[in-house]
Amino acid sequence: MQQRLEKPTLFEDKHSRLKALAQSRGIRVNKLMEELSTLALAEFDAQIRFQALAIQGDVAG
Fold first, then answer.
1. CA pair distance 36, 39, nearest whole angstrom
2. CA 24, CA 19: separation in Å to the nearest integer?
3. Are 10 and 18 contacting, i.e. CB atoms less than 8 angstroms apart?
4. Could you tell me the keywords of this UniProt record (predicted)?
């Protein structure tokens, strides 16, 4: 028996709000998601760097 794979979807409300945000910026939802993921990764990298410096006790960076 073969399973049917479906694309993961966002709740309709969230999708429509993301679409409105993307349209307000003049970009497509995929581009918006790319930009948001870049911001999330930059925040994560900063958090990891901060934690590493805190472990070392380096306040100057």
1. 5
2. 9
3. yes
4. Plasmid
Is the dihedral angle over the CA atoms 44, 6, 23, 17 positive or is it negative?
Answer: negative
For 1-60, the three-class secondary structure string (H helix, E strand, C coil) is CCCCCCCCCCCHHHHHHHHHHHHHHCCCHHHHHHHHHHHHHHHHHHHHHHHHHHHHCCCC
Is 47 inside any structural domain? yes
The contacts of residue 31 (CB under 8 Å, 6+ apart) are: 22
pLDDT per residue of the chain (61 residues) written in tens, 0 to 9: 567 777 667 688 899 999 999 999 999 999 999 999 999 999 999 999 999 999 998 666 5
Q: Could you give the number of structural domains in the chain?
A: 1
